[in-house]
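Problem: given the chain below (122 residues), write out its structure.
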Amino acid sequence: MYQAQAAIAEFITPYYSPNDLLCIGFQEIVTNAIEHGNKMDFAKEVEIKIKVTHKYIELIISDEGEGFAWHEKLNSDLNIEDYAEQVQERGRGIKIANKAYDRVWYNEKGNRACLFKYRKED
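Solution.
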């Protein structure tokens, strides 16, 4: 995951800088795909696609898992104070990605995440 994150950071930097928040959101969703989607089954793959246009950057992360009910997690707010006190809270990765990107959504099954960020106007 960290090698993929470094490669993506290098790829995105010419198009969106600073890219720190984008990389953090990406890391959270990839971690979810590996840990929760694929349940740490190293025989299963996580696929990452990136699309860059003049107007936006889109990252798509797909796992081979069964999916999950993502609607409620995506629409709940991230409260930093609560997060600091409740280290065991689940679903914070989705909330972090939702703060870092302009739009986050999943396919209906819940095993493909789309992260969308408008590019800054020059």
